[in-house]
């Protein structure tokens, strides 16, 4: 797709809403509260903030810069940095494809549970209802039967997502986020206000915010903080590079990253307040301590919260707010994930948007609809999510940073490692009110790679000590390790295929030669 015909965001606000919508997803609501509680409570906010400032925001700014500088999706943009880096781009595209197939399934669950909330259809045993009556979950293994109660809402989710993507960046993604994000804010604020007024809310908040300062001496707490920031900002698998490729030449990159980053973190803290206020209510109602009802992930959303909704006054209303929030947050993130795959195929083949959405988005939807609305869908989803996050997203980001900063070349040539980041720093500073300095380079070339590397070592040590979730080695091999390794292999193979007509470098990548767009004018 030539630069002249590449779409652009209609406004800076539209871009920010889309970027925030991508970052604010299911993990913000069910992952952060449990992570904070398990890693020092209120004290966790200190390493969390440090992680945001030293890893999250620097990498977010770099991804914005790469996308806007080269005005292409990750594979094509990385190729212009250095030819071998194209494989990293396709690796990220494969990761996005995998995530999209199962992420849509969780959104479909949230859609169904929004309806279940009206009559509290899960009954007196939400755990049995979720895994048995709803998902018909079997022992981990190959799928053997279909689950219509998941298939049909999943089909609807994919139809909505593909229609929005078919309408384009400005008429589809931007307009959708201008509706979804205010709706999500209204839903979640109403949910939090209701939660903090429940009996027992104070005890829940005390459990959430009470600091355990001794935890700060535990290295795993810091790893958890960096992991949370990394996985919650939608960095490392091509989304922000793709979204930034539709920015105008004069858009403020650094300030946009600050707004998106702090908005995401604010939502996470707000989610923690809402979740733990509600858990405090449940603990008081059952006459137990808060730590006995704390849970995270899928169990928190689809087992613990239904149990709470059944006991609380006005439960159906609360349930609609909660699962409606999950649905909206999931949709905005899913749209951004699929857009990475579509945009990359467009740049590689020259396909127009509608055919690309129908073909690429259609294939992604079909894979999703074949695998996950089955009796084995829950266990496959769990294993795939764990391995593609731990050994896909984080590792791809680590390799990308090493390539961009060229540490080994700097050591070999005895040239300052910071020089390789100069083109990106200059590009960002040319249109940003907040100027990047040496600290930004230190974060990207030293702090973030070291932390990501340690996260890999720490995670692998856990894998070898004990099989994830107690699954069999055979099951984890094909549903976890093979998925993560397959994404890397696909990235390398696709990068070796010659580009039709040869790769072309986008013209007009220098800020001083580009004509300002409507978005540029708004930024100034």
Description of the molecule:
The chain has 524 residues and is mainly alpha-helical. The chain has a single domain, classed as Amino acid/polyamine transporter I (Up-down Bundle). It contains 22 helices and no strands. It has helices spanning 12-23, 26-30, 32-38, 45-70, 74-81, 86-119, 126-134, 148-166, 169-196, 201-209, 219-232, 239-244, 253-286, 297-311, 315-349, 353-371, 377-405, 407-413, 422-429, 438-465, 473-496, 518-523. Helix 6 (86-119) runs antiparallel to helix 15. The model is unreliable at 503-524 (pLDDT under 50).
What structural keywords apply?
mainly alpha; membrane; Na/ntran_symport; about 525 residues; 22 helices; Sodium-dependent transporter
**CATH top level label:** Mainly Alpha
Named CATH architecture: Up-down Bundle
Task: Please state the CA-atom Rg, rounded to the nearest Å.
Answer: 22 Å
Structural class: mainly alpha
**Element pattern in H and E:** HHHHHHHHHHHHHHHHHHHHHH
User: What is the count of helical runs?
Assistant: 22
Mean pLDDT score, rounded?
Answer: 89
Major sheet characteristics: none
Helical coverage, percent range: over 70%
Number of domain units: 1
CATH superfamily membership, which one? Amino acid/polyamine transporter I
CATH topology: Amino acid/polyamine transporter I
Query: What gross morphology would you assign?
Result: globular
Which oligomeric state applies? Answer: single chain
- Tell me what portion of residues adopts beta-strand conformation: under 5%
Flag low-confidence runs.
Answer: 503-524
């Amino acid at each position: 797709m030539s630069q002249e015909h590449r779409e652009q965001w209609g406004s800076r606000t539209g871009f920010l809403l889309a970027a925030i919508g991508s970052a604010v997803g299911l993990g913000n609501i069910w992952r952060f509260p449990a992570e904070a509680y398990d890693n020092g409570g209120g004290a966790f906010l200190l390493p969390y903030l440090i992680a945001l400032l030293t890893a999250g925001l620097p990498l977010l700014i770099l991804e914005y810069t790469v996308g806007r500088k080269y005005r292409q999706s990750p594979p094509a943009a990385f190729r212009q940095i250095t030819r071998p880096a194209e494989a990293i781009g396709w690796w990220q595209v494969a990761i996005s494809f995998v995530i999209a197939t199962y992420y849509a399934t969780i959104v479909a669950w949230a859609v169904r549970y929004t309806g279940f909330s009206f009559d509290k259809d899960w009954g007196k045993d939400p755990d049995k209802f979720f895994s048995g009556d709803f998902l018909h979950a079997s022992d981990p293994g190959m799928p053997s039967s279909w689950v219509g109660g998941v298939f049909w809402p999943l089909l609807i989710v994919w139809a909505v997502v593909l229609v929005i993507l078919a309408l384009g960046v400005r008429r589809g993604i931007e307009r959708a986020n201008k509706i979804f994000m205010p709706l999500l804010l209204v839903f979640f604020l109403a949910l939090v206000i209701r939660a903090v007024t429940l009996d027992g809310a104070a005890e829940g908040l005390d459990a959430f915010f009470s600091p355990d300062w001794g935890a700060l001496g535990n290295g795993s707490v810091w790893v958890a903080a960096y992991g949370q920031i990394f996985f919650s900002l939608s960095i490392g698998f091509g989304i922000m590079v793709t979204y930034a490729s539709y920015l105008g030449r004069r858009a403020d990159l650094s300030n946009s990253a600050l707004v998106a980053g702090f908005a995401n973190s604010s939502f996470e803290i707000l989610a923690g307040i809402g979740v733990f206020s509600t858990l405090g209510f449940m603990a008081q109602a059952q006459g137990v301590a808060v730590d006995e009802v704390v849970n995270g992930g899928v169990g928190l959303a689809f087992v613990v919260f239904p149990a709470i909704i059944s006991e609380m006054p006005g439960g159906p209303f609360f349930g609609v707010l909660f699962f409606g929030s999950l649905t909206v947050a999931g949709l905005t993130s899913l749209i951004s994930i699929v857009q990475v795959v579509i945009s990359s195929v467009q740049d590689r083949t020259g396909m127009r948007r509608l055919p690309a959405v129908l073909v690429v988005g259609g294939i992604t939807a079909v894979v999703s609809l074949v695998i996950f609305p089955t009796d084995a869908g829950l266990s496959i989803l769990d294993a795939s999510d764990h391995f593609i996050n731990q050994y896909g997203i984080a590792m791809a980001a680590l390799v990308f940073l090493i390539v961009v900063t060229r540490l080994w070349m700097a050591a070999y040539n005895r040239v300052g490692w910071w020089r390789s980041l100069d083109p990106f720093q200059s590009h960002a500073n040319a249109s940003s009110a907040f100027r990047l300095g040496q600290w930004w380079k230190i974060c990207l070339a030293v702090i973030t790679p070291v932390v990501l590397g340690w996260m890999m070592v720490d995670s692998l040590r856990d894998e070898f000590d004990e099989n994830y979730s107690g699954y069999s080695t055979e099951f984890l091999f094909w549903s976890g390790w093979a998925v993560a390794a397959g994404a890397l292999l696909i990235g390398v193979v696709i990068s070796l295929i010659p580009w039709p007509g040869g790769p072309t470098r986008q013209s007009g990548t220098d800020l001083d030669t580009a004509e300002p767009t409507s978005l540029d004018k708004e930024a100034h």
